[in-house]
């Protein structure tokens, strides 16, 4: 039964984490924000940044240096196209901020600072299918979205209706946006995957099980499965009971958090039910694309006698410490007394 379950989990893991590749384009245009460049942009595959620039440090123009990973015969042509797209996005942001600014000036209290954020991505699935999305934000809130198949903008808030009406009349821009995310974005993604093989690097997770007892309620036992050092981000962690079935009751999971080296970590805890702390065995099962099968770490409960021994040793240790402390204090008092 346990083998069948693990096989089923592996199958679902293969479906969920079959390494679909995603190219993200993030850009920000700003007005009136002290210390912030007027334009910032980044390209990333999954969560690895491959290109980053802003209007203060790196201008995306004809003289912009080619990244090392594009140093091939075909590299310059790909770079020119990426460069061109970035410049077009910058012009788009300038125009958009001007349009919003003119409209805001007609309101009672126009904002002193403006931030316009764009996020678009294209996803290439292992079966060859694609998924694309474009969404924009204004001053940290959802603003508009672009329906790529329909070639139409939709306002997320009433404030964005004016902008949507302005964009609806620009048929050429609508066609360009449709073409880019339906065709060119995928080609850029394939180019990046071809010339930047380090994107495919994977890191195997390290797995450990930590046991802790409540200070106020010593009988409350919690075991935590700490999974760290893995890449890519997608991971599946399950607590299995004695029968090898995934547990739901008493299980709590944290978020996947980044480590400083580009890898990730995750903690998943299990609070043991009363009566099972000395008899039941549990396992932490980890599924990750860097491992062909799975990583399983078992937690074996300690016997009651071992807990009693640990408690007795702790008490003895405390008594010895107090005795030593009293002896040291007496010696200090005797040394401080004046001679007779």
CATH topology of the largest domain: Murine Class I Major Histocompatibility Complex, H2-DB, Chain A, domain 1
N-to-C span: 84 Å
The stretches of 5 or more residues where confidence is low (pLDDT under 50) are 3-8, 10-17
Query: What is the CA-atom radius of gyration, in angstroms?
Result: 30 Å
How is the main sheet built? 7 strands, antiparallel
What is the CATH superfamily of the largest domain?
MHC class I-like antigen recognition-like
Q: Estimate the mean pLDDT confidence.
A: 83
Count of domains? 2
For the record, the CATH class of the largest domain is: Alpha Beta
Instruction: Compute the number of strand runs.
Output: 15
Report the CATH architecture of the largest domain.
Answer: 2-Layer Sandwich
Describe the protein's architecture and organization:
- The chain is elongated and about 85 Å long.
- It has two domains: about 20-200, 2-Layer Sandwich (Murine Class I Major Histocompatibility Complex, H2-DB, Chain A, domain 1); about 205-300, Immunoglobulin-like (Sandwich), CATH 2.60.40.
- With about 350 residues, it is of the alpha+beta class.
- Strands 3-2-1-4-5-6-7 form a seven-stranded antiparallel sheet.
- A hairpin with a 2-residue loop joins β2 and β3 (about 50-55).
- The model is unreliable at about 5-10 and about 10-15 (pLDDT under 50).
- The chain contains five helices and 15 strands.
